[in-house]
Amino acid sequence: MWDITNTDVTPKHFLLRVLLVRVRSDG
Asked: Is the dihedral of CA 18, 22, 3, 12 positive or negative?
């Protein structure tokens, strides 16, 4: 699992973060 605390503003990392939040909210 990637580091969520990493403040990388790259589109890919942003998407991954959004996906993570979605999964967390869903689960």
From this structure: negative
